[in-house]
């Protein structure tokens, strides 16, 4: 079976339920669909007798020759022959073109090719192991959703995932992912990962997405001197569109708090990113302190003076909805308060307000999925209200009280400080604003 009953039981009891155990809903979960923007994604498996607890790897030296084959007989790779799970790599790779492995740490150059093999020279060596990512910059590739991708997506829907992240190929086509699992998965957030030619069609991709991820392979697929411009453009576009944006660059790769790596983390936050992915050392390295250091750097960067950013966003607010959000958040600068509390059902009002908010935003909702997905947006702290909700917002004081209690417990404000209360309800309506 693609997904055995044992695997499903493990996900249910160990991962998804643990992610939802916190009463403040500070964890969300979703499958990462490996539908990459490249033809050859995964390398084969070296198996020279290593214990199962270790990842077998082979050292590739600069100047040596390496043969890449599509023959599954070499899935367990040999010293100078490796297998890749591509079907058309030999068709799209031109003689003399580059092949990057493991996020660009290793590079190969194509010297000879046949119907089912490539002979390459190692330009930059390194540790070649199982499941290493492969990038083919400049290659005209097409990677539709595979059967396994769809199975993974359906599994996430069945287990109640909050979001799903998928690679977006060169265009905007991504079948079976945009609400592609039927009515049951229609409210799952679809986060598109962009790292190559999708940059040039970013507006089209953003239009069909619930959020964007700036993937870590961006520096391989486009010229290195253009990377910071592309990232700032994508983050800025997402802020204007009101969509969450995640930066997935290789931060703290060396596990140290060096100036350059500290600046990388800070500038992603200063640019306006909602989330920063763990990658490299913070994700799977030997130094767990790297995670704490990354958190400290992000927190320091968030303590910026928001007035200048607020004024810049004010000039970019063309719609009435955004203008109303700006007006409400503008009161914070005139009369400083500790936090903003918003009552919302689908979450859209809280998502808009947090773009302009200089303070923590406590979003009180009775929708469980809305509360979980709110963590995709920077500065929102969701509170799940489980008691019956009154139709008249002015009578629903219990929701306000619930948000106030959480704010006091979390130290967002203290006795004597003011709190701005907002609601997505109109006085003459019994339904939330869009």
UniProtKB/TrEMBL annotation:
<feature type="domain" description="Pyruvate kinase C-terminal">
    <location>
        <begin position="338"/>
        <end position="429"/>
    </location>
</feature>
<keyword id="KW-0418">Kinase</keyword>
<dbReference type="InterPro" id="IPR001697">
    <property type="entry name" value="Pyr_Knase"/>
</dbReference>
<dbReference type="InterPro" id="IPR036918">
    <property type="entry name" value="Pyrv_Knase_C_sf"/>
</dbReference>
<dbReference type="Pfam" id="PF00224">
    <property type="entry name" value="PK"/>
</dbReference>
<dbReference type="InterPro" id="IPR015795">
    <property type="entry name" value="Pyrv_Knase_C"/>
</dbReference>
<comment type="similarity">
    <text>Belongs to the pyruvate kinase family.</text>
</comment>
<dbReference type="Pfam" id="PF02887">
    <property type="entry name" value="PK_C"/>
</dbReference>
<protein>
    <recommendedName>
        <fullName>Pyruvate kinase</fullName>
        <ecNumber>2.7.1.40</ecNumber>
    </recommendedName>
</protein>
<keyword id="KW-0479">Metal-binding</keyword>
<dbReference type="GO" id="GO:0005524">
    <property type="term" value="F:ATP binding"/>
</dbReference>
<keyword id="KW-0021">Allosteric enzyme</keyword>
<dbReference type="InterPro" id="IPR015806">
    <property type="entry name" value="Pyrv_Knase_insert_dom_sf"/>
</dbReference>
<comment type="pathway">
    <text>Carbohydrate degradation; glycolysis; pyruvate from D-glyceraldehyde 3-phosphate: step 5/5.</text>
</comment>
<keyword id="KW-0670">Pyruvate</keyword>
<dbReference type="GO" id="GO:0004743">
    <property type="term" value="F:pyruvate kinase activity"/>
</dbReference>
<dbReference type="InterPro" id="IPR015793">
    <property type="entry name" value="Pyrv_Knase_brl"/>
</dbReference>
<dbReference type="InterPro" id="IPR011037">
    <property type="entry name" value="Pyrv_Knase-like_insert_dom_sf"/>
</dbReference>
<dbReference type="InterPro" id="IPR015813">
    <property type="entry name" value="Pyrv/PenolPyrv_kinase-like_dom"/>
</dbReference>
<keyword id="KW-0067">ATP-binding</keyword>
<keyword id="KW-0324">Glycolysis</keyword>
<feature type="domain" description="Pyruvate kinase barrel">
    <location>
        <begin position="58"/>
        <end position="289"/>
    </location>
</feature>
<keyword id="KW-0547">Nucleotide-binding</keyword>
<keyword id="KW-0460">Magnesium</keyword>
<dbReference type="GO" id="GO:0030955">
    <property type="term" value="F:potassium ion binding"/>
</dbReference>
<dbReference type="GO" id="GO:0016301">
    <property type="term" value="F:kinase activity"/>
</dbReference>
<dbReference type="InterPro" id="IPR040442">
    <property type="entry name" value="Pyrv_kinase-like_dom_sf"/>
</dbReference>
<dbReference type="GO" id="GO:0000287">
    <property type="term" value="F:magnesium ion binding"/>
</dbReference>
<keyword id="KW-0808">Transferase</keyword>
């Amino acid at each position: 079976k693609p997904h055995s009953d044992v695997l499903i039981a493990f996900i249910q009891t160990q991962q998804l339920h643990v992610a939802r155990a916190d009463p403040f809903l500070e964890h969300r979960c979703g499958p990462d669909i490996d539908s990459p923007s490249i033809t050859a994604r995964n390398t084969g498996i070296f198996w020279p007798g290593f214990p199962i607890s270790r990842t077998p790897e082979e050292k590739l030296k600069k100047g040596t020759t390496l043969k890449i084959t599509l023959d599954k007989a070499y899935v367990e790779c040999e010293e100078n022959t490796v297998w890749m799970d591509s079907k058309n790599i030999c068709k799209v790779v031109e003689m003399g073109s580059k092949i990057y492995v493991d996020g660009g740490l290793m590079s190969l150059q194509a010297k000879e090719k046949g119907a089912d093999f490539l002979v390459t020279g190692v330009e930059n060596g390194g540790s070649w192991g199982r499941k290493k990512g492969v990038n083919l910059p400049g290659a005209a590739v097409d990677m539709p959703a595979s059967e396994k991708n769809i199975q993974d997506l359906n599994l996430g829907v069945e287990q109640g995932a909050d979001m799903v992240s998928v690679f977006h190929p060169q265009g905007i086509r991504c079948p079976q992912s945009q609400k592609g699992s039927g009515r049951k998965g229609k409210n799952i957030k679809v986060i598109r990962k962009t790292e190559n030619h999708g940059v040039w069609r970013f507006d089209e991709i953003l239009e069909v997405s619930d959020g964007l991820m700036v993937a870590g392979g961006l520096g391989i697929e486009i010229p290195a001197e253009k990377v910071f411009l592309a990232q700032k453009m994508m983050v800025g576009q997402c802020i204007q569109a009101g969509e969450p944006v995640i930066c997935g660059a290789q931060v703290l790769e060396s596990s140290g708090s060096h100036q350059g790596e500290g600046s990388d983390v800070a500038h992603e936050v200063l640019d306006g990113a909602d989330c920063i992915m763990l990658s490299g050392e913070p994700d799977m390295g030997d130094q767990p302190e790297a995670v704490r250091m990354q958190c400290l750097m992000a927190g320091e960067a968030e303590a910026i003076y928001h007035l200048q950013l607020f004024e810049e966003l004010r000039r970019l607010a063309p719609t009435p909805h955004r203008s109303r959000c700006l007006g409400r958040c503008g009161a914070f600068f005139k009369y400083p308060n500790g936090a903003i509390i918003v009552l919302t059902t689908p979450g859209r009002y809280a998502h808009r307000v947090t773009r302009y908010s200089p303070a923590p935003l406590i979003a009180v909702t009775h929708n469980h999925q809305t509360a979980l997905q709110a963590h995709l947006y920077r500065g929102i702290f969701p509170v799940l209200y489980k008691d019956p909700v009154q139709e008249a917002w002015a009578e629903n004081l219990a929701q306000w009280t619930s948000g106030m209690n959480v704010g006091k417990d979390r130290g967002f404000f203290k006795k004597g400080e003011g709190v701005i209360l907002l609601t997505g309800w109109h006085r003459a309506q019994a339904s939330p604003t869009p």
